[in-house]
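Design a sequence for this backbone.
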């Protein structure tokens, strides 16, 4: 993976200090702890405003973790593109197949440490279904899924539970939905809380013969 702000010693320390002061000055708090393992997919939810990215990066600096995050490719147009990539951004092209899941699985296989942040809603607008790329990346790479959150009502952000995906998408998504049921986004009217569902869960598992 490319070098980012988290690999830039002086700037990293400066941003960490700014993040700590910013959280203290605005009354925000951190809750939960990152998974102990060196690799995992981190859900970023809810995603309802441009403030979500800033809060997420502040949390990363405060937790002293190096993260990469996925965002729509239109965010990475010049002149902001190089800066966002330096901040850990990975452009995602939505309107054509780019084998993004397979590419990120390979990144997990080729790196000893990797934290990949994925916003399942894929947009700040309200959606009917969450995108499940984050789930398939974690399942194929055999890494945990950690439930990250930003709760604007309580001014709290951090980590919820982490789990190894079982391969039963519908069952695991129900677990995820339960965790996020009480989290408040900055724009509640855009928070897709009720959309943590599976549009096409795939064929049902065959029951074993008696």
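Sequence:
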């Amino acid at each position: 993976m490319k070098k980012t702000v988290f690999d830039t010693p002086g700037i990293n320390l400066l941003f960490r200090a700014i993040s700590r002061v910013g959280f203290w000055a605005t009354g925000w708090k951190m809750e939960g702890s990152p998974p102990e393992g060196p690799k995992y997919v981190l859900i970023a939810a809810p995603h309802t405003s441009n403030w979500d990215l800033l809060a997420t990066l502040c949390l990363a600096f405060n937790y002293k973790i190096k993260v990469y995050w996925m965002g729509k490719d239109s965010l990475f147009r010049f002149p902001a593109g190089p800066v966002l990539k330096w901040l850990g951004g990975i452009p995602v092209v939505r309107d054509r197949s780019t084998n993004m899941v397979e590419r990120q699985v390979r990144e997990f296989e080729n790196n000893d440490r990797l934290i990949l942040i994925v916003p399942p809603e894929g947009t700040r607008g309200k959606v009917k279904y969450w995108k499940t790329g984050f789930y398939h990346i974690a399942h194929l790479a055999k890494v945990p899924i950690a439930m990250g959150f930003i709760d604007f009502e309580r001014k709290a952000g951090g980590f919820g539970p982490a789990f190894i995906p079982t391969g039963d998408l519908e069952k695991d998504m129900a677990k995820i939905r339960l965790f996020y049921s009480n989290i408040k986004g900055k724009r509640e009217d855009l928070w897709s809380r009720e959309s943590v569902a599976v549009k096409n869960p795939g064929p049902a598992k065959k029951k074993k013969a008696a």
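The radius of gyration is 17 Å.
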